[in-house]
Amino acid sequence: MRDEQVIAAISTPFGQGGIAVIRLSGRGSAQVVDRVFRGRSPLSSSPPWTMRHGHLVDPRGNPIDEVLAVHFKAPKSYTGEDSAEVHCHGGPLVAQMCLEALISAGARLAERGEFTRRAVINRRMDLSAASAVMALVSGQSPKAVEAAMGSLSGATRRAMEELMRDLTRACSHLEATLDMPEDEIPPLDWERLREDLSRIARGIRDLHQRGLAGMALSQGVQVTLVGRPNVGKSSLLNSLSRQARAIVTPIPGTTRDVVEAAVIHRGVPIKLLDTAGIRDSNDPIEALGVKLARETMLTADLRVLVLDGSSPPHREDLELLGSLDMPAAAALNKADLGTDPSWDQVLRDARVPNVTLSALSGKGVEELKDLMVRSICSNPAVDGAVTMFRHQLDALSRAAEALDGALSSPYLDATAQLALEAQRHLASALGLDPTEEVLEAVFRNFCVGK
Ligand code: GDP
Ligand code: ZN
Questions:
Q1: What is the distance in A from the centroid of ligand 1 to the CA of 247?
Q2: Residues 6+ positions from 86 with CB-CB distance below 8 Å
Q3: Of 52, 294, 377, 419, which residue is most buried, by most CB within 10 angstroms?
Q4: Ligand 1 centre from 360 Cα, in Å?
Q5: 276 alpha carbon to ligand 1 midpoint, in Å?
Q6: Quick one: which residues bind Mg(2+) (predicted)?
Q7: How far, in Å, are 3, 13, 75, 134, 442 from residue 446 at the CA level?
């Protein structure tokens, strides 16, 4: 049975504002409000989707605030359940007192993301749309908001449903062939089936790419600056983010832990990390910074190797260039002091995209930002980016893997098995009948009131 207990939470941000909205959901929401609402007529006997004016009172009947209240009839509400809203004045104390009155009237405080969770369970909203709600609430950049709108409108769900329909058709074709007595087996059109399965696999991969792009857009792309001490990493970070964040000194080994800065460039949020100069050190604190630098380097979406272009390449520069994890780029810094001619050949041999710049004068810094965005967004999926939960991305990637297996198996029954497995993963990505675990994982990061 569905948990229909009436839940309540303040849905507007904490702090002072013109109004605060307390949201309630579950059968009997309007009746709960009525126990502490004093208006011309009870809310539950007023027409739904219409604002009513009145006062909210505490359990002893003392007025707390003048409010507007509205109730919604299932299924035409955010959660798909009977629900209600109380709009009170936006002081944090008043809103809290109104919420407490509603709780004493029989509502339970909602858990994180519980409204959206109920919307998903009631199929009022699909998982991609729920992820869009989160992205919109925490939206960090215009492109991330754009990606969220695609999912909120149901476009992501429709794309998944279409793949699901095709896959289901292919699966039933395979199963029917397996179920038939041998002498009645109609000739299975293998070529046609293989084409269908590969087309579906491509579709799933494409959606996965777009989901990854959406994730990068909403979380921001991580870029680490690496390089020998004193090449200008901290100066470059400051220049990139146009704020003095990192400590810049002429003494090598100043940056001992990771310094972060965020910039939005062409609608894409970039999270920049300045790491300690990579070199062996006897100073334990600096050594710790170096270890951290190595770790951040591994997890970054892009590594930018900063080089001092004004002097000839060092042995360490060449080592770093040779051992860079991809994707990576090089920033040939200190161009204001002139560029040593030997860099040209070195960078050509290394085959990493590079920009000549000066952190000091700012020349070339915008080009580096362009390069960062391009190297991450070279993936054409960025334009079709959509938001999804990590769970959905994983499920899509498993579905594509299962289909690869189905396509490469020489045995019909193995193909059928794997195609069915792909179908299960796709259903999971769609959020059809989500398990408690999935719901838990998905809504853990929501805030109360969403
Ligand atoms: P890090 O150790 O790699 O973080 O290097 P810093 O950012 O601390 O810079 C080391 C030294 O190089 C400082 O004295 C900076 O002022 C200087 N520096 C950094 N970038 C430039 C640049 O583009 N041009 C010039 N002339 N000096 C720079
Ligand atoms: Zn530094």
A1: 11
A2: 21, 22, 24, 33, 37, 56, 67, 68, 69, 98, 102
A3: 419
A4: 7
A5: 14
A6: 234, 255
A7: 19, 13, 23, 7, 8
Amino acid 332 reads L
By three-state DSSP, how is residue 122 classified?
Answer: coil
Q: Residue 125 — very low, low, confident or very high, per pLDDT cuts 50/70/90?
A: confident
391 lines ligand 1 (CB under 6 A): no
Return the closest-CA partner of residue 326 out of 345, 300, 348.
300
Annotated binding residue 230: yes
The residue whose CA is least distant from atom 20 of ligand 1 is: 232
With vertex at residue 273, the alpha carbon angle to CA 271 and CA 276, rounded to the nearest 5 degrees, is 180
Q: In whole angstroms, give the CA distance from residue 164 to residue 171.
A: 10
Distance, in Å, from the CA atom of 429 to the CA atom of 42, rounded to the nearest integer, reads 43
Does the annotation flag 232 for ligand binding?
Answer: yes
Q: Report the distance separating Cα 47 and Cα 110, nearest Å.
A: 25
Alpha-carbon span 67 to 55, nearest angstrom: 5
Residue 85 assigned ligand-binding role: yes
Q: Cα dist. 185→189, 294, 415, 419, 429 in Å?
A: 11, 59, 17, 20, 33
- Does residue 221 contact residue 268 with C-beta atoms inside 8 Å? yes
Q: Is the CB of 187 under 6 A from ligand 1?
A: no
- Condensed to tens digits (0 to 9), the pLDDT of residues 152-200 reads 888 899 999 999 999 999 998 888 888 777 666 666 678 888 999 999 9
Q: Which of 240, 248, 337 to mutate to test the pocket of ligand 1 (most atoms within 8 A of CB)?
A: 248
167: burial class by Cβ within 10 Å (0-12, 13-18, 19+)? Answer: buried
SS3 helix, strand, coil % of the chain, rounded to 5?
A: 50, 20, 35
Distance 303 CA to ligand 2 centre (A): 15
**In angstroms, rounded to a whole number, what is the distance separating the alpha carbons of residues 156 and 387?**
8
The number of residues in the chain equals 450
Distance (Å, whole) CA 99 – CA 109: 9
The full set of domains in the chain, from first to last, is 7-110 (3.30.1360.120), 132-217+389-443 (1.20.120.430), 220-382 (3.40.50.300)
d(CA 408, CA 410): 6
Sign of CA dihedral 415, 416, 421, 427: positive
Strand partners, 237: none
List, for residues 4-28, the tens digit of each pLDDT value: 799 999 998 777 778 999 999 999 9
Mean pLDDT, the chain, as a whole number? 85
Q: Is the CB of 423 under 6 A from ligand 1?
A: no
